[in-house]
Amino acid sequence: MIMEVTIFDKILSGEIPSNKVYEDEDVLAFHDVNPQAPIHVLVIPKKKVATFTELKDRPTIDSGVLFQKTALIADKLGLDDEGYRIVVNCGENGNQEVAYLHAHILGGRKLTWPPG
Ligand code: 5GP
Question: Rounded to whole angstroms, how far apart are CA atoms 78 and 8?
Fold first, then answer.
């Protein structure tokens, strides 16, 4: 499978700088350049997946680890007491801009529902 090289690949390789909040063997987390909430952090798996839809064909990708690490990072950001939202945009209708699977952590304000 040929995957386009995205801005997140370049952040992961260090080619493009980011405001990093957490990194380990599984994930990298950094502040979104265009935050939609007082806290807006993106979490990417180091093993690349382009979109959420691909997870159904990629049993070797441990999406549970991505969720567990995202919960850990949200706690480190001090969001556990007030709560927060995890968003994974998928494809055109989901408004996914970057073709590298990522979880948005949004917090620090009361978020509205339904989302726009
Ligand atoms: P998507 O719409 O794909 O779910 O979200 C992509 C997110 O990446 C957007 O919230 C956008 O602001 C963020 N983003 C795009 N380019 C960069 C960048 O170069 N650095 C950082 N930190 N975030 C970016």
Answer: 25
Ligand 1 atom closest to residue 87's alpha carbon, by position in its atom list: 4
Instruction: Give the dihedral sign, CA 77/81/83/88.
Output: positive
Residue 102 annotated among the catalytic residues of the structure = yes
Residue 56: pLDDT over 70: yes
Distance 33 CA to ligand 1 centre (A): 6
How do residues 5-48 score in pLDDT, each as one tens digit? Answer: 999 999 999 999 999 999 999 999 999 999 999 999 999 999 99
Asked if 103 and 71 touch (Cβ cutoff 8 Å), the reply is: no
